Amino acid sequence: MDKLTPTVVVTGRGAVTPLGSDFQGSWRRLVGGEDAQAPVTIFDVSGCRCKQAAEARLPDLSGVEWRKRRRWSRATRLIVPALREALDGAGLLDAHGRSRQARLPLSISTTGGAMAMGEAFLRNLLGPRRRPERLFNVGRYQAHQQVLDLHDHFGFRGPVMIVANACASGANAIGHGADLIRAGLAEIVVTGGYEPLTELIYVGFDCLQAMSTDRCRPFDKARSGLMLGEAAAFLVLESDQHARARGADILGTVAGYGHGTDAHHLTQPNPRGAVLVNVMRRALAQANCAASDIGYLNAHGTATPLNDASECAAFAELLGEKLGSVRISSTKAAMGHSLGAAGTIEALFALEALRTGELPPNLNVREPEPAVAGNLVAVGERATAMRATMSVNLGFGGSNAALVFTRYEA
User: Fold this and answer.
1) What is the pLDDT averaged over residues 178-188?
2) How many CA atoms lie within 13 A of 155 on its CB side?
3) Which residues contact residue 335 at a Cβ distance below 8 angstroms, ignoring those fewer than 6 apart?
4) What is the secondary structure of 387-402 as a DSSP string?
5) pTM
6) 259 is catalytic
7) Which of 48, 50, 167, 216 is catalytic?
8) Which residue stretches of 139-224 are H helix?
9) Domains of the chain
10) Which terminus of the chain faces fewer neighbouring Cβ atoms within 10 Å, N or C?
11) Which of 324, 272, 271, 317 is CA-nearest to residue 294?
């Protein structure tokens, strides 16, 4: 990388997931081999083929004024505590919980936004007894409303980029934020993704028969589908010069980003994973890393027949004879597929694996895919002295994205 190009570092992270109401709690349960699969309770699934998902327990928001809280969607109730944790960890909150930075660019991803608010509006409109006060729901389900809620609650402003690029959105949001810093357009960017469970999306995946009625089994020969989940996750990205100048703790480096579209099929990945290979190579080139430098890879791993096979082919092509030395897992068996949030929370897992040497396990495997049978992480595994980790995400429409994380060296 050119010496004049800023190094992009992570100084804060926060998350609300089905495994915990903060990042560290989620991480401890994840590496401990727990999963959050449970029956769906937030909407009626009696007419669905599938009945389970990974729901998040909403954090306590009793400190928020009740008039504000009652207007917030489930989406906002997920993202406010996640962003609070990230900003606090980065040293960006004052004693009143407000941002010390008046201007914070935001690069955020989602698929459905607060779609549940739109669903509530339609139920009220079509129901036998309409409630006029419910009309406000129609104005609060769009994704920009959740951004306005963040601006209002934390007291910052700035340019906003909302990425809705299917399941690669979270990685794209991080990559876009890092690009802003590398291009000299910003010194600090808040980036993240969120996705609450909504009935429309759940029923849609159920109609596609893409969800498993049993367990989510990524990279298992008998895999039968994904498990939906919900989450919100944020990272604070800065140029290393800006972070050092204000004395921030640096957690690691967003060293490389690659993205591309294969246009193979609306819902099916390219069987050979050709574009994913190119995307991973671009991320590695930007990070000035070789494929053999990757110690851990957080795979997209939806546990659908075509996705996992495509990823296996891509990993084999990228790593060749070095494949056997890379540890691989999908964390979706533990906390579900959170769509627009998946790329962000999984990037955080890849970064934390690099920092701690702990590895997230690949759960529920009984008969692993031969191509990665020797790579899948077991509960309790550790890896020391990793130079880099990677996370990859694939989305409907052929979206592919990869992120590379390295330790920070001044």
Assistant:
1) 97
2) 11
3) 17, 18, 19, 26, 30, 35, 36, 54, 229, 231, 345
4) -EEEEEEEEGGGEEEE
5) 0.95
6) no
7) 167
8) 143-154, 169-182, 199-207
9) 8-406 (3.40.47.10)
10) C
11) 324
